[in-house]
Every structure is written in structure tokens, then in C-alpha cells.
Design brief:
- Helices cover about 50% and strands about 20% of the residues.
- With about 170 residues, the chain is an alpha+beta fold.
- It is rod-shaped, with a radius of gyration of 28 Å.
């Protein structure tokens, strides 16, 4: 048992390096930033081992750094990753908040809108009936249906109607 302890004291940095690489590899599979925080703790413990810190201090450094990373850095990093500028949003997220025009009356169950050149099935978010040709805003997407609400400012210019004049049946 003493031999194992002596080896850990002499080559403890190797153990921390293996843990660092292992946690980093697991992080590439999970992508939730938890194992990345543990890998930073292992990297700090490896640095302590290289500086000839005792084994118990290496473990303490690992625990403290990993805990601080999980509590302080991970929430901020996740928030930063999940929220971005409009240009960073993709697919359906990009449609939320966009202006659209109703191609046919939109009610609580059925209707059609044109969002940026694409025709979508739609329904009104508050259940009201929105007439054809009205400018609306997309509040959310449920499956393949856009949930819309009327815009506060009325009026539609020809640019918003598109080249087909906003008439249904022409795409």
C-alpha cells in the first residue's frame, strides 16, 4: 500500500491528467458543461501535483475548483450558450417575433400566414378571428403551426405582402 502511495506522490500528475482527459471526453458526449467543470478541477489538481503539493491538498484543490466552477461558471456559461443574438438563433427560434401576413382568415383552430416568403398553417394565440391581409406577429411555433397575434400598428405595405400581393394560393 505504501508503494501505491509513493507512486501517487511521485506521479500524481499522471492520474490528474488522465482524469482531465476522461472528463473532457465525456463532456464531448454529454454537452451539458458539467464534466467540463470537473475537468478544470482535475487540471488545477494536476498543477498542484506538478508543484509538489501533498496528495490530500491535490484532492482538496480538485474538489474546491470543480465545485466553484459548477456553482459559479456553469450557470453563466449555460445562459450564454442558450441565449444569443437573433443572428445566432436557428430554424424555428428565428421565426418567433417575426412579422407575418395572414393569407386567409386565422382563427383559434385554422388559418394560413406568410412568414418571410414561406406559407405556414396558423392559429391565433388569443382565439380571435384575424382577417386575411392583416399583419401579425409570430408568438410561438407549435409543431408545424405558427401561433400569431395582431401587430399593434395597422397597415400593410406592398413590401410586406410579397410579390404575389399576399393572396392565398400563389406561392
Amino acid at each position: 500500500m505504501q508503494e501505491l502511495y509513493d507512486w501517487l506522490v511521485a506521479y500524481g500528475w499522471v492520474l490528474w491528467l488522465v482524469l482531465f482527459l476522461g472528463f473532457a471526453a465525456i463532456e464531448t458526449l454529454t454537452l451539458d458543461l458539467f464534466f467540463a467543470m470537473l475537468s478544470v478541477g482535475a487540471l488545477a489538481a494536476m498543477l498542484a501535483a506538478v508543484l509538489s503539493a501533498p496528495l490530500f491538498l491535490q484532492v482538496v484543490v480538485f474538489c474546491v475548483v470543480a465545485l466553484l466552477m459548477i456553482v459559479l461558471v456553469r450557470p453563466a456559461a449555460l445562459k450564454h450558450l442558450k441565449t444569443g443574438t437573433k443572428e445566432q438563433r436557428s430554424n424555428i427560434e428565428r421565426l418567433i417575433g417575426e412579422a407575418a401576413i395572414t393569407l386567409e382568415p386565422v382563427g383559434s383552430r385554422t388559418g394560413t400566414v406568410k412568414i418571410g416568403g414561406d406559407t405556414w398553417t396558423a392559429r391565433s394565440g388569443d382565439g380571435s378571428l384575424l382577417p386575411a391581409g392583416e399583419q401579425v406577429a409570430v408568438t410561438r411555433i407549435e409543431g408545424a403551426t405558427a401561433v400569431v397575434e395582431p401587430l399593434r400598428s395597422g397597415g400593410i405595405d406592398s413590401e410586406d405582402r410579397g410579390s404575389d400581393g399576399g393572396r392565398p394560393g400563389r406561392h
